[in-house]
Backbone:
């Protein structure tokens, strides 16, 4: 749960103080369209009776069909909304002083994390357990604050890791002890595996982010691995979390692992996870080479510049 939120924290951290360039969003959208269309066409040949013409239309605009089992990319849908709002968030981060930033952060934390958790209710602001734009805005703003005030420098690295471990252990205790004792109803937001809003997750993900931010990697082999896998991580998500692909090849296909003894179960889950990640990464590496060959990012960048230029010319001619 904290790993997904960390992706958004990274975005807020990286884009703090930078001009919003929409060609980056167009490049990501091109990846989404690439896999949505390619996968749906391939599956149509493999399972011709399972998919109809409407699935092609939904594959073209997947972010508008988030509830369809063959089209859902909820993370990217929320990310698009957050990205479009990022200029306004960056404006606030730029002009607010420390007192104002602290007030905004505490307000966001209390209203969108703490209160929904205590009340076990996230419908007041349509938070949808963190699967939406509003929560992504909170995470983006938090990532910007981490950059602005260099919060990761406030503690030593082992302390950040300790905070994360403590949050994890508290969540575990709530999940497996209090529920068994009947003191908390099943599905309580504070430790629910399906909710991103928990303050324990929120604090834990900030600590985890700061831990990795302060980590100093010097070995060239590890640096090479990071550089190789970083550009393809989004593609890994788009491939293995494609709802059509998951429906035919993943859903319920690995239930037999649950019958293994604990050690074999643990090893199987790790091996399968790594295997799926590596295969998807290699596939997206080919896509990355294709996009570089076609200069997709450069073309979108040029397109954005031309739009701005024509818009400026229009305004000047009518002023």
Residues:
């Amino acid at each position: 749960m904290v790993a997904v939120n960390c992706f958004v924290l990274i975005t807020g951290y990286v884009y703090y103080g930078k001009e919003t360039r929409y060609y980056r969003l167009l490049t990501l959208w091109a990846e989404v369209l690439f896999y949505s269309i390619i996968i749906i066409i391939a599956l149509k040949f493999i399972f011709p009776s399972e998919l109809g013409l409407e699935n092609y239309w939904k594959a073209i605009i997947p972010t508008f069909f988030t509830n369809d089992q063959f089209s859902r990319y909820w993370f990217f849908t929320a990310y698009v909304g957050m990205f479009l709002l990022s200029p306004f968030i960056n404006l606030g981060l730029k002009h607010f002083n420390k007192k104002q930033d602290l007030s905004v952060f505490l307000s966001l934390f209390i209203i969108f994390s703490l209160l929904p958790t205590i009340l076990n209710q996230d419908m007041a602001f349509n938070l949808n357990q963190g699967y939406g734009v509003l929560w992504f805005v909170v995470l983006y703003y938090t990532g910007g604050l981490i950059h602005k005030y260099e919060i990761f420098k406030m503690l030593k690295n082992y302390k950040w890791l300790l905070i994360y471990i403590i949050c994890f252990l508290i969540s575990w205790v709530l999940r497996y002890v209090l529920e068994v004792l009947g003191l908390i109803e099943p599905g309580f937001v504070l430790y629910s595996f399906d909710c991103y809003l928990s303050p324990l997750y929120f604090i834990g993900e900030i600590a985890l982010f700061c831990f990795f931010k302060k980590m100093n990697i010097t070995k060239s082999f590890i640096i090479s691995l990071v550089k190789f896998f970083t550009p393809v991580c989004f593609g890994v998500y788009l491939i293995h979390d494609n709802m059509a692909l998951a429906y035919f090849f993943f859903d319920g296909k690995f239930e037999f692992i649950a019958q293994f003894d604990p050690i074999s179960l643990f090893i199987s889950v790790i091996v399968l996870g790594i295997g799926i990640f590596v295969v998807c990464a290699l596939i997206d590496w080919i896509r990355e080479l294709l996009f570089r060959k076609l200069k997709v990012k450069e073309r979108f960048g040029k397109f954005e510049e031309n739009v701005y230029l024509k818009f400026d010319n229009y305004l000047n001619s009518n002023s």
